[in-house]
Amino acid sequence: MIAATTTYTYRAPSALDAAVHVLALQTCGGRTPAGAAANPRFFDGALTEPEVSAAALLAVADVASARYHDPRLSGSASLDPVVTAGGGRLRFESFSGCCGVHARLDVPPDGLDGGQVGRGTTNVDVNLPLRDALGRLTAREPLGLTVGPDELAVRTGGERIVEKKVPLPDRWIRGFAETSVITSRFGLRAELSAAEALRFLRTLPRAGSGNASRGAEWVVAGHGRLRGTSRPVPGAVCLPGPQRLTALRRVLRHARGLRLYGPPVTARSPAQAAAWELSLPGGLRLTLTLSPETGRGFSGEGAVLDDLAGPDVEADAELLSVLLAWDARIDTAGLAAEAGLTVERTRAALTRLGADGRVGHDLAADAFFHRELPFVPGRAEHHNPRLRAARAIVAAGGVRGLGPGLAQVTTAEGRTHRVRGEAGTTRGVPACTCQWWAEHEGRRGPCSHALAVRIAGATETGPTTPGDTGTTQNR
Amino acid sequence: MSDHPLFTLIDDGDYRAVPDALAAMTEDERRAAVPALKAARAALSRITLWTYDDPRRIAVQLAGAGCLATAPAVAEWLLTGKTRVTSIPGWRPDASLIACLFADGPDTRDAAFQAELVRRLAAARLDEGELPYYHLVVELIRRSGCAVPTTDAFVLTWARETAGRYNIDTTPPTWDDRPLAVVLADDPFLRPLVHRLFEIDGSQGYTELRPYSGDDPDDSWPAALAALATDGTLDAARLHDAVLAALVRGTGATADVRFRLWTLERLAPPVQECAKYADDYVRLLLDGPSTVAAHAQRVLGEVLTPARVVEVSRDVLLRPEKKLVRAQLSWLDRVVRQEPETAGAAVPVLAEARDTLEDAALRERVERLIARHLPRSAEAPEPSALPEREPDLAPPPPPTAARLELPQDDTPEDAAAALRVWWRRHQDDGPFEDALLDRLIRHAHQDRERLATALRAGIADHLEWFSQAGHEPWNLLGVAAVVCGVPCPSRGSIFNTMVEVRGRELIGRLQEGVTTPFPLATATHDDGTVAAAELVARIAAYERLAAEPGPVDLAQALLRVVPQDDPDVRAAAGALTSPAGRRLADRLRTGGRDADPAAYPEPFATLLAGPAATEGRSPVHARSVFACRPEDLPCDPDVQAEWAWYVARRSGARMDCRTLERLASLPGRKGEATHRALAGGLNENGREHRAAAVDALVVMVSRGELDPARLAAALGELTVPVASRLASALRDASVTVGARAVWPVLAELLPRLLPSGARVHGLSDLLALATDLATRAGARGEIPGLAEVASRPPKSRLVKEAGRLRGALAG
C-alpha cells in the first residue's frame, strides 16, 4: 500500500469570527473548471440554518478524524473534508481513517443565502479551535459563510500559511472514490419519521464501548417502525457495526426524517454496505454510508467491475470528463446525447469516472454529480484520439472566438474550421465545418474542434459563472 | 580514528566511563569521531527483547549524543534506529546524556540547539505510556529556558511524573507525602500545561493517583486544581473555560468525561462566571451525556431567563433520561409560576412533550402542568390521536428451505480433493460431512478401485497418520482408509459424533462387502431434512439391488424425513416391499409424529427419549463442542428444542437463538418444548440474540404455528422474566406481523404476571406495550387482575399504566 504524502497549503486557518458572525472556511489546492487552482474561492454569503449547519459540519469533521475499527488511535491525524461547489449548492464530504464510513452533507440553495456559488472541488481546513467554536454556536440569526480566502489576503500574500502534511494511503483514496460507485446501486428501502429515528438510533451502542459489535446486523422496517433482525430478509438494510452511526448524534435533535438505502437483498446475502440519510431543516441532508464490516473498507463489487470491463470505457470516460462542468445533477440521457454515446455506455463511463473519484452519487436525487477529488492524481489521456487532438489545438493556441456562439479553430496542419454552438446544433452538439462532422453530424458526439472550443471556453470563464442551473446545457 | 580510547570503551561496553572520555576530547576530535561512530552504530545488533540493554549500544548512544553537532542529528540518533534506548532496569540514560551533551561545560551547546532538541524530543510518540527521554527534556528546558512544549506525549508524561509519588529510581525508593496541590504549586510547568490536560483524550489514565483503590476525593487532581484556583496560583476563569470547552467538544471516553466533570464540579465557579458561559451550559444540557447534563441543569437553574428556560425545555423534554425530564418539569413549573407571562409559550412545549413521552406517569404530570398553567382564554391543546386500528395484513411469507445440489459429474478425484478440504477446515461442519460421506460411498460402490487410487494419491499423508495413530476418529477418514485397504485399529475413538456413528456402520459394511449404493440419510434440503419422495426412490433402489440398508442409516433417514400429504408419495411408499420400505410407509401414514423411541437403535432412542432421561447428557457430541449439534438431532422441532433448552440450562449459557430460528423453520408440529425455548430466547439479554428470537417468532406466526396460550404459559414460567426485554421483543415482533398476532400472547401473559405477589422488573413497560397493541388491534375484553392493580392507592407508574390499559380495553 503506497501512502502518498499530500500537503495541504492554506493561506490561513479556518475560523469562526464571532465579531462579524462569519464562518470563514479556508481552501487549499483543488480543481475548478479552469483547471487546478491554488486557493479557489467558492462562496460568500450566509447560511440560513446556522445551528443545524454547524452541527452537521461538525459531524462530517468527526467522521474525518475517526477510526472506528480501533478507537484508541483516533485523533492522530485529522483529514480535512472535501467541499464541492456547483449548481448553487455546497457539498462537504469526508471519509474515516478506517476506510469504513463516508459522510456527506448537502447544503441546497435553500440553505444558502445571498451569494453566488462557484464551481470546483477542494479541501477545507477544519482545526481544533474551529471545531470548538462550531460546537458552541447557538445562533438564531443567519451565519455568514465564506468558502475560500479573502480577496485581500490573496492580494497581499499570506504570512500565516498553514501547511499540513497528510499521508493518504492508496486504500483510503480508492475507498473514497468507490463509495459513490457503490451507492449508485442502492435503492430506497425505508423512510421513517423523526421520532422513530430518534428512538432507534438511541438504542444503538456508542463507539468505543464494550457492547460495540463487529458483526453485521440487519434492520427491517414495518408499520413505520424499525426493528433489528438477525438475518437478511428481502427489503432489509444491513447495519454493519452500529456504533459507527454515532456521528449522527450531533444532529439527532434537529432531524426531520430518516431514510435508509441499500442494495437488493435476498435471504442468503452476505453483509452489505448501506446508507443512512437524515433530513434536516433547511433542506440539508446528512448521509452516512457504512462499509460491509467494521474492519473492512468498501471494495469494488462484482456489478461495478462488469461496467468497468468494457472495451471503450476508458475512452468514453475521458470524453465525458470534458463535457462535465461541475454539474450538481448529471442527466444521463442528456449527457449521452451530447457525447454521442448510448445510455449504457454513458453509465459505464460514469462508473469509471466514479471509480477515479471524479463523480459522486447523490442518493436522494438518484443521480451523479461532478466533483474531482483533489488528491487523486490526474490520469494521462492516451485513450481518446479526439481529446488528444483537441488538447493539442488548445495548447497551440488555435482557438479564436468570433462572437457569441461562434469560434474559429486552426488545426496543426493549418486548416481552419468554424464551430457554431447554440444555433444550428443537432441534439445539443456544436456544429463544425469539418469533414468528420459532415459525415457523422452529431451521431458520434462532438468533433475534436468542438472539443477544443469547449476546453478553451472553460479555461477563459472563471469559477463563478452566474445563472448556472446545474444541468448540462447547450454551449 | 577507531583506535581512540573512546572506541575501546565502546567495544568493552563500558558506558559509564563514556562521559568522562568525551570530556577529555577536544571539539575537533569529537567531530572527527562521528563517521566511525556511525559505523559502530550500523554494526550494532537490532533491538530485540534480549538485546535492547546491550552495553555497547548504550555506549554508542552516549558517545553519539556527545559528538554530533546539530540538534536534528542528535534527535535522530536518540529516537530512531539502533541507538534508541530509553531505559533499562535500574538505570536511565538521561543523566549520562546530559553529561555527554555538555561535555565541555554548560556552554557546549547554545540555547538554540537546546530549544530545537527539546522540540524534536517532545514530538516523539509515547513509548509504554511515557515520553522517551522525559527527564532529559526537562533538564534541557531548565537549562535553556526555552518554551515548554505542549505536545500530547509531553503533557501526559508530565502529569504522571509530577503526581507520581513513588520514585523507584532512587535507592531506597522514596515516597513523597506532600499533598498534590503543594507539589503542583511548585511546579514550573503547571501553568502552560494544565489546560492541555483537558484537551487530550485519555488523560484520565495519567491523572489517576491510585489506580487500584480508587481516588480519594480530597487528594486528587480535581481537588488540587480547585485549591490552586482558589488561592490564585491558577487563573480560575481560564481553567473554567478550558474544562467547559473540553466538555462541549464531547470527545473522549466515559473516563475522560468523568474527570472533566469532576474538575468542573470541584471548581464550582460563581454564578456570574457561569452566566457568561450560559450558551455552553445549554449545549451541555441539550447534547451532553446524562451526568454532564444533570450538572448543567443545576448550574443553569440560577442563570437562565424564564423565556430561555421555556425555549430550552422543548429539547430537554425529548431526552430519554427520566430523571432529567422530571427535573426539567419541576424547573419549568417553578419558572412559569414566577413569571406567568411565559405560560403562553410554555403550554405548546408541554403539549409537544406529552405527545412524545411514553411513560404514563410523566405524561400525567405534564397534563397536570398544562391544566395548571393554561391561560384562561386559550384552549387546551388537543392530545395527539391514538394509534389507529391496523388493517389486516398478511404476515410475510416464511422462508422455504432450498434444495441442496449434488455435483453432477463428480469424479473420485474431486471427492479426494474435497476430503482434503474437509480435513483442513470443515471437520465440524455437519452438512459438508453429510454430503461428502454420500459422495464417498457412491464412488466406493461404483468403482472402488478408482476411488482407492484417487484417495491414495490425494491424501496419502493422512492415511499414513491414520494407520499409526492410536485414537483416531472413525469418520470420513476411516471410510477412506477402508476403501484403500489401510488397516484400521480396533480401539475405537474418543469422540462420538453422528458421522462416526454412521461411519462405523458403513465401514463395517464396506469391510464385509455388503452392497451399499449410497447412504439413505443424506439430506436433500439445506435445513437437514430429506424429501419423502426422494427417500422412497432411494429405498426402491436398494430393493432393486436386493440390499438391506443398515439400521443406523435407516433410523437416521426415517427421523429426517419430512412427511408430506402427497398421495402419490404415499402410494409409492406403499409399493415398497422390504422391511425398510414398510417402516417408511408406516411413518408416512402416521404423519411422521411421535416416533417411538423403542423402535429405533441407539443413539436415536436416547435422543428421542429426551434430555430428561439422561439429565442433558447427549449420546452424540460434536467434535469441538460437547453439546450435540442440531444436524444430528431428529428433525422434530420439539426434540431439538428440548435438547437446546437443557444444554442452555446445564452449561449456564444463553439460549442459542440461531437454533431457535432453525427450529422455527423446520416442518412439524411445534409443541410445548419449542414454545418454552422461544420464551427463553425472548428473555435474552443481548440485543442480537433477542432479534434472532423475534425472527423465530415471526416465522412461526407466518406459518400459523404459534400457540399464544402456550407461549404465554412458557413466559410465565420463566424463572426471571425481565418484562422490559419481553416488551421490546414483542414490540419488534408486532412491527412485522402486526398487533393482532401479538396481542393474544400478551392477553394471556398479563394475568400470570399481574398478581399482587409477583415482583416483575419492568412490568410497566409491558403494560404500556399492551395498551399500544390493544389500541392497534382494536381489542376489547377483561384481563383478570388488571382492575385490582389499577385501583391500588400509590400512584406509581405501574398503576397508571394499568389504568390506561383498562381504558383502552373498555373502548
Short summary:
Chain A has 475 residues and is α+β, with helices and mostly antiparallel strands. Chain A is built from 12 helices and 26 strands.
* Radius of gyration of chain B from CA coordinates: 39 Å
Main sheet of chain A: which strands, in order across?
A: 11-7-8-9-20-19-18-14
Terminus-to-terminus distance of chain A: 43 Å
**Structural shape of chain B:** flat
State the helicity of chain B in percent bands. Answer: 55-70%
Quick one: which chains have the greatest interface? Answer: A-B, 33 and 38 residues
Largest sheet of chain B: 2 strands, antiparallel
Q: For the largest beta sheet of chain B, what order do the strands appear in spatially?
A: 1-2
Low-confidence stretches of chain B: none
Number of domains of chain A: 4
Low-confidence stretches of chain A at least 5 residues in length (pLDDT < 50)? 73-77, 423-427, 461-475
The rounded distance between the terminal residues' Cα atoms of chain B is 104 Å
Mean pLDDT of chain B: 84
Task: Please count the helical segments of chain A.
Answer: 12
User: Structural class given helices, strands, pairing of chain A?
Assistant: alpha+beta
Mean model confidence by pLDDT of chain A:
79
Count of strand segments of chain A:
26
The best one-word shape of chain A is globular
Question: Which helices and strands occur, and which strands form pairs?
Answer:
The complex is a heterodimer of chains A (475) and B (811).
Chain A lengths: L2 E8 L4 E3 L4 E4 L4 E3 L2 E3 L5 E5 L2 H15 L17 E5 L2 E7 L5 E7 L4 E2 L6 E4 L4 H8 L7 E5 L3 H6 L5 E8 H14 L3 E7 H9 L13 E7 L2 E5 L7 E4 L16 E6 L11 E6 L5 E6 L11 H7 L4 H11 L8 H8 L3 H13 L3 E4 L4 E4 L14 H11 L3 E5 L2 E5 L5 E5 L10 E2 L2 H6 L7 H13 L15
Parallel strand pairs in A: 3-12
Antiparallel strand pairs in A: 1-13, 2-3, 4-5, 6-10, 6-12, 7-8, 7-11, 8-9, 9-20, 14-18, 15-16, 15-17, 18-19, 19-20, 21-22, 23-24, 24-25, 25-26
Chain B lengths: L4 H8 L5 H7 L2 H6 L1 H10 L11 H13 L3 H9 L13 H9 L9 H12 L11 H11 L7 H12 L2 E2 L6 E2 L4 H6 L4 H4 L2 H4 L4 H4 L13 H10 L5 H14 L4 H14 L3 H6 L1 H10 L2 H11 L5 H11 L5 H17 L4 H14 L3 H14 L38 H14 L4 H17 L1 H11 L1 H9 L7 H9 L13 H15 L17 E2 H13 L6 H10 E2 L4 H8 L4 H11 L14 H6 L1 H4 L22 H15 L5 H9 L6 H11 L4 H16 L5 H9 L6 H15 L1 H15 L9 H15 L8 H5 L6 H14 L1
Parallel strand pairs in B: 3-4
Antiparallel strand pairs in B: 1-2
Helix pairs in contact in B: 1-5, 2-7, 4-5, 5-7, 6-8, 7-9, 8-9, 15-17, 16-17, 16-19, 19-20, 21-22, 21-23, 22-24, 23-24, 25-26, 25-27, 26-27, 26-29, 28-29, 29-30, 31-34, 37-38, 37-39, 38-39, 38-40, 39-40, 39-41, 40-42, 41-43, 42-43, 42-44, 43-44, 44-46
